Amino acid sequence: MQELFSKLFIRIWILELEAALLDAEAPSASDIYAICKGQPVPANLKPDVWQACLDVTDRGNQLIHFNEVFDLPEQNTIRNDCQQLVNKLGNDDEDKVSVVSDLESIITFYCKNRGKRYEKGNGWLELLGPLIALKLPRSATYNLFEAIRDIYIPRGDTHSAVLRLLLLYHEPELCSFLDTKRVSPDQYTKGWINTLFAGVCSLPAISTMWDLYFMQADPFFMMFLSLIMVINAREQILSMKDEEKRTIVDALAAMPCALEAEDVTDFCSLAQYYSMKTPSSFKVDLYGIMFGEGGDEKFITHALCLPVSAQELIENTSEVSEYLTGGAPPVEAVRFFLVDCRPAEQYNAGHLKTAFHLDCNLMLQEPAAFATAVQGLWQAQRQAIAAGSEAGGEHLCFLGSGRQEEDRYLHMVVASFLQKHTQYVSMVVGGYQAVHEYFGDEVVNLVDHNSQYCLVCNTSLLEGDPSDASPAQMKNSNSDLLGKIGQAMKLKSQEMKGKLFDYIVNPAVNTNNSAEKTNDKNADTSRGESSARPVFSIDDDQDSDMTMALTQSEEPIEVVSIQQWLKDPNLVHSFKCMEVKVNGYVYESHLLVTDTHIIVLREIQGRKGAAHVIVKRPLSSIVRITSRKKHPDLITFKYGSTQSDSVVISDMDRFLIPNASEATKLISQQIMKQMKSLE
Questions:
Q1: Domains of the chain (ranges plus CATH)?
Q2: Is the predicted pLDDT of residue 112 greater than 90, yes or no?
Q3: Residue 645 backbone phi and psi in degrees, to 5
Q4: Of the candidates 612, 640, 610, the residue with the CA atom closest to the CA atom of residue 625
Q5: For residue range 401-416, what is the model confidence (pLDDT) as tens digits?
Q6: What are phi and psi of 172, to 5 degrees?
Q7: Cα radius of gyration (the chain)
Q8: How many CB atoms lie within 10 A of CB 450?
Q9: Sign of the alpha-carbon dihedral angle for 568, 572, 577, 580
Q10: Do residues 360 and 409 make contact, with C-beta atoms less than 8 angstroms apart?
Q11: How crowded is residue 173: how many other Cβ atoms within 10 Å of its Cβ?
Q12: Quick one: angle between helices 431-439 and 310-324, nearest 10?
């Protein structure tokens, strides 16, 4: 009976999938995933499903632009490699000539169309193997190949650093072993990443894997598939402690060869589980670097551990807090235990209510006291988890000041945890400064925030300017910022540790009262922008990750036709972009610029050509446009108004715009034009 119901269920979703594929508008990858529920696709539907997931159903025949001239310098290499692939595929003799011709045409046109050079072993033909097996027309095969290359194949070797950090996060002992053997991921994953495993797995296994992979519509999913491949071989790898490096690399590289088609579903499910158990904000900064036009890789290649944005940390805590007070359960499977490693006087001048204080200064000055504090940390974490507190999480997230000189001590503390093979270790990018700027004017969310002693609000404490500091501040600035504080501060630190420990293990304790009593009358002027500055500016030095929570409603304003809006006579220009939310989610969107407004149309999945109007803001409300040096295509529009003698930031939107410089220049010109007309 159970087998009968299982067959009936399969038949139902297959019929539903067939119906969706027959619709006038092709279903999106998420639509197909919702129908299939993680099951592989029947062979007869596979071509249509892959084309729908990769959004190439209506792309047309691009090969009509091919002049059929095969004159590339590497043409002989292309032809020979195509012949070898067809021989491996085992096609009938009468088909071989046709298939070889199609393959050579596809590779040659791709090189000419994209300005690429074919290199032996670059993975292109391995990618084409599963596509040729679909027996589609040559033009459709080309469209699939081009889309896979554009969407899912990373540029450069950044993926190696990412995979190592993911391995360090989930399996620190295994990562340490491979580091000791000087085995880096790029040495064994080249045949995995560049071919989406097609270069090392059997065709039946790849056929099933790509079904599930394309439904995910997440280019970073390959990182987690690779992670599972390594983790599954954990015991075998650790047992190779006496083997040479080359032997270990070869064993790792060959791991996917044993993957059978019937194992793929469980394999992908495990990868999805690990993805859910991993902080996701690193993807936002890395997307343009790995899958776009590139950028500064240092923030990830030089990272001590997995980076977490201030947005993700705070959003995660907020979701858990809402859930504990009767709200919906949090979507994320990651729960952070925040460890604030700043000196005591900085911690006492403002911190997140869930933060456990661990003074990194103790590690060098008082090792015994540091060891005791670490034991207290583990005890507090265990009790917080047991009590169901919003501060309770398995994932340790370390927070520094955000200043390099001080955070070198933080790095020593984090390294000590990693050396002990502590699992789930991450660090907040930008430290407390990023957290502070995330809240903006809403610093009431910080416990005991005092603008007089807060180093973000009062930069004179850092500069040591005697003209701006009170006698008490001057005395404090002469002491060591990393721990040499007065007796009063030490007593306050002990008191706060007691309060915090009570809060962590007892979620009913309210620690917000102290924050409500904070005298913060200097905060506005210290963070507000002088009215003497231009209302509008483009700032390429600001870190756009340091954003505040959106105050606008997420409910769409209206549903519209994209083409109809693009034909609006009032439209000055439009830009294809990705809308980036503070929780790390991204949405395909269009940024429209008119004489008076910027408008954002978010594409509706499953309804091609339709969009929600998510943002509609007057140009006059834009007070700043910021980008990042390491990620110039990630643009933040900040909105606000003039109050008294300062500009107050009230909201912001973020976008990944491929031609960001053109967009910001055009919008700035429109703003200046509008300002002149008002004058």
A1: 2-152 (1.10.8), 158-185+218-294 (no CATH), 309-524 (no CATH), 531-678 (2.30.29.30)
A2: yes
A3: -115, 20
A4: 640
A5: 988 777 888 988 999 9
A6: -60, -35
A7: 28
A8: 18
A9: negative
A10: yes
A11: 12
A12: 60
